[in-house]
Each structure stands twice: as C-alpha cells, then as structure tokens.
TrEMBL record:
Name of the protein in question: N-acetyl-alpha-D-glucosaminyl L-malate synthase BshA
Residues in Glycosyltransferase subfamily 4-like N-terminal domain copies: 11-179
A Pfam match: Glyco_transf_4
NCBIfam families per record: thiol_BshA (TIGR03999)
Gene3D superfamilies: Glycogen Phosphorylase B
Length: 378
C-alpha cells in the first residue's frame, strides 16, 4: 500500500507513535509518505520505502496567523497525485483530520477517491478539541473520516461523551518496539555515570506541561530520598521546567536531581532507572509509561485516562488518585526498599509491555487500511 501519514513532528506521543508506525509499515514493504511541516524527530530516512514531504506555509503580512491547514490540504492533494498515494492516515484531529477532509473533497472533484483513517490521541479530544471554538470542526472531521481509531478505550469513551459522534471508533492501543527499546545492559548501561551503587534512580519523562503535574514528581521524589539514597532524572523540556528547578532548590534537593532537557537517548536513560513516575492530571494512553515498562522499569502513576489500561495495578507498578502524592510516595518507597520486590516488579513491567509490542499492534492498523480501501472500492 501507498500510505500518507500526517502527524505533528515533535517529541509528543502522537508524533512518536505515528513515526514508529510508519517505520514499521515501511519495513513490511509499504510505501510511506510523511507529510508535515518539519521532519519528525524519530524519523530515519534510510529505508527506500520512507519519503518525507515538507509543508511550506508562505508568510504574508495579510495573515496574522499563517494558514497551515490550507497549505497542508494542498500539499496532500499534490502528493497524492504525484505519487499515487492510496490512503491518508492522519494523527490528531486538529488540524489534520480537517485538512485531510478538504484534500479528499478536492481530489474527488478531480476524479480521485481516497479513504482517510483518523487516529485520536488525547488532547485533540479532551483539551484542544473540546474548546467551543474547535468543537464543531472536530465533530465534523471525525464523522467524515472513513475509519476512526483511538489509542485507548478511555479516549474512545471520552470522544463519545464530549462530541456528537455518529460512527464507530476502533481501539488500537499505542505500541513500542520491545527489541529496539532494550539495550545491552552489560555493555551500554553505565549506571555509575548517574548514581552510586547505593542510590536508587527515579525517572520522569514528559513535555513538562501543567497536565503532567511536574511538582508532584518532585514532591514524590522528595519523600523517597528522605527514606533512602536516591537520584531523580528529569527528561524533557517545557514551560514547567524552570518552576521545577526552583522547587528543587526550595526543597534543598537540587544536588539529587538531574534535568536533561529533550533527549534522543531515552533507552539509555531508562536502563539506569529503578522506578518511573507519571502522576499526570490525565493521559489518553501513557506512552512514556509503556516505554519505561519495556525497559523493565516499574511505574508509579495516576489512575486517570488510559493509564490503568497500560500500568497494571500491583503487577507493573501502582496507580494512585490524581494529586495523592503521599500514596504514590508510599508505594514508590515500598517497591524501592525491597530488592526482591523491585526485581519482581521490573520483570513484570517488561512482561506486561510485551502485550503492546509493535508486532502485535501494527497488523491491526494494516487490517484497518484494507477495510478502508475496500470501502472505497465499492
């Protein structure tokens, strides 16, 4: 199949999943065309089945905000005609599903029928998409997609609750490439670079937005380090990073916390880790938690959104109510203070993550693509 993938090219979960999906589809022999405003951060162009097409948005003084949706829909039309693309797969409802719909209409007038699969990832539904300014366009775009998928059952339920949706939504969970995520711990995982032998290493990875509840991460770690020698690794960047650094200073734990910023070496960082913290306000799925589990790192998370579908209570970690710092700290200390229990949780985390291996999930997308193409062949 010749498939166009439209996504945000950033470190966010939707962009990462879309990129990894395209890479795996290319390995399976499909011709994949990424169409976005810059090269996705995890995109490798070494496979001859991978193509990247940049969307240029001309700047005119007339426009206060540059019309990306117009540029994207026009680019989609041009690329479909030039490369014979058979299917559009758009990730994130805003603005990609809307632009995809406009491209479909323009192509139809030129005698080209092309199906569109829309994957909902989270804040495109629960936060941005639910804003009154965007809600009608989001509902319209979803209802006019040929097939709609969501990354968790919880997100599917939210979509039906928040929008007037008249079509079926299929749940296809996020995934991870287990073999790629695991590194050789004997030769590549130099734990001594980060901490002493007696220190436990706790990690958090996110885009440092308010929804991630970064102060809760710091407060949980603060309780942990009171009970045992420990280091905290904070990976990512965003508006909450500077306040987090200030909170560490205020609590007197700055010497025990490392702020990495954005990193392309997530697997190497996770291989050092004993525990992963994700106390978010909401997570449509919890890809960061899954990445940790695939590296054999147990997770302490909130019990919101799709997280209970990923982090299995008492098996791969524990879940607490949003904002319940004391409970999450208690469970973190419980795992970290007993080496035998820590080993058991690490093994379980890896085992649970294998349910979401790329080889299990990508065939579900291929089945959806075949279904969409069959619908348009009628």
């Amino acid at each position: 199949m010749k498939i166009a993938i439209v996504c945000y090219p950033t470190f966010g979960g939707s962009g990462v999943v879309a990129t990894e999906l395209g890479l795996e589809l290319a390995r399976r022999g499909h011709e994949i065309h990424f169409i976005t405003y810059s090269q996705p951060v995890r995109l490798a162009l070494l496979n001859p089945n991978i193509h990247y097409h940049e969307v240029h948005v001309p700047e005119y003084p007339l426009f206060h905000y540059q019309p990306y949706e117009l540029a994207l829909s026009s680019k989609l039309v041009d690329m479909v005609k030039l490369y014979g693309i058979e299917l559009l797969h758009v990730h994130y409802a805003i603005p990609h599903a809307y632009a995809g719909y406009m491209a479909k209409k323009m192509l139809k007038e030129q005698g080209i029928k092309i199906p569109m699969v829309t994957t909902l990832h989270g804040t495109d539904i629960t936060l941005v998409g639910n804003h009154p300014f965007y809600k009608p366009a989001v509902s319209f775009s979803i209802n006019h997609s040929d097939i709609v998928t969501s990354v968790s059952q919880d997100l599917k339920d939210d979509t039906y609750r928040l929008f007037d949706i008249k079509r079926e939504i299929e749940v296809i969970p996020n995934f991870i490439e287990i073999d790629k995520n695991r590194i050789d711990t004997t030769s590549e995982c130099h734990r001594s670079l980060m901490a002493t032998e007696t220190q436990k290493i706790v990690t958090h990875i996110s885009n440092f937005r308010k929804v991630k509840r970064i102060p809760d991460v710091i407060k949980i770690f603060n309780e942990i380090q009171k009970k045992m020698p420990a280091k905290l690794m904070m990976v990512g960047d965003g508006p909450e990073k500077a306040p987090a650094e200030a909170l560490c200073e205020e609590l007197g734990i700055s010497d025990k916390v490392i702020f990495f910023g954005n990193s392309h070496e997530i697997s190497k960082i996770l291989c050092f880790s004993d525990l992963f913290l994700l106390p978010s306000e909401t997570e449509s799925f919890g890809l960061a938690a899954l990445e940790a589990m695939a590296s054999g790192v147990p997770v302490i998370s909130s019990n919101t959104g799709g997280l209970p579908e990923v982090n299995k209570e008492g098996v791969s970690g524990y879940l607490g109510n949003v904002g319940d710092v004391d409970y999450m700290a208690e469970k973190a200390i419980e795992i970290l203070s007993d080496d035998a229990k820590l080993f058991e949780f690490k093994s379980n985390a890896l085992k649970v993550s294998q349910e979401f291996d790329v080889q299990q999930i990508v065939p579900m997308y291929e089945k959806v693509y075949r279904k969409a193409l069959k619908m348009h062949a009628k």
